[in-house]
Amino acid sequence: MSNAPDRFLSWRWEDEADAERLTYQPDSKKPNAGTFVMKKEDHTIGNLLRMQMLRDPGVRYAGYRLPHPLIMECHVRVETMDSKLTPPQVFESALADLQLEAEILENKFDAAIAEFEHNRGI
Question: Which pTM was predicted?
Answer without folding.
Answer: 0.81
